Amino acid sequence: MTYDYVMFRMFMDPKDPQVMEILRHHEISLAGITSCFYVGYGIPSIMNIVLICEISTIFLNYNLIKGDDAPLFTQIIFVIFFVVIRIILMPYLFVLYLIQARVLWGKVIVARKLAIIVSGALYFGMNILNFYWLTIIIKSIRDMISPPNTSEDDRDDYKKVYG
């Protein structure tokens, strides 16, 4: 994840909104993971499992590199990994995180309680961001599947030929 962040920071256009979203995603992730390690106990284990979501990044990066030439297979694999890991698994792990945080709350010092709040808020934000990205993916799929828009002239020509 750190590697991706550095590569995006160094080689991608910072004015591109998609690049900015990806950079914010990595900044939130790194801050959340760091605070989880400070909390300790079972929280870092949950966060390490959450890092499985980066598997979908392999296919996302490949598709970004290839652009319109990306094989349909890699696009489908990306969507499958994204939905299974980021939309199904991550919210479930967030519930486990909340349970673990509740168990630890009375047993840790104030600084670790603050780290629980920060990491929990960032994790929640990451889940919201994943659902936002899901809407973008759904719109992209819809655009790929839907027929191209035709102009009024094309429809008139169609009516002349086919009645």
Describe the structure.
The chain has 163 residues and is mostly helical. The chain has one domain. Helices cover 82% and strands 0% of the residues. The chain contains 7 helices and no strands. It has helices at residues 2-11, 17-39, 43-50, 55-66, 72-104, 110-145, 152-162. The relative contact order is 0.11. The model has no long low-confidence stretch (mean pLDDT 81).
Notable characteristics:
single chain; 163 residues; mainly alpha; 7 helices
* Extended strand count: 0
From the N-terminal CA to the C-terminal CA, the straight-line distance is 58 Å
Distinct helical segment count: 7
What pattern of helices and strands is seen along the backbone? HHHHHHH
Helix amount: over 70%
Tell me about the largest β-sheet: none
Low-pLDDT parts are none
Q: What structural class is derived from the secondary structure elements?
A: mainly alpha
Tertiary shape: elongated
Count structural domains.
1
Proportion of β residues?
under 5%
- What number is the mean pLDDT? 81
Kindly provide the radius of gyration, computed on alpha-carbon positions and rounded to a whole number of angstroms. 21 Å
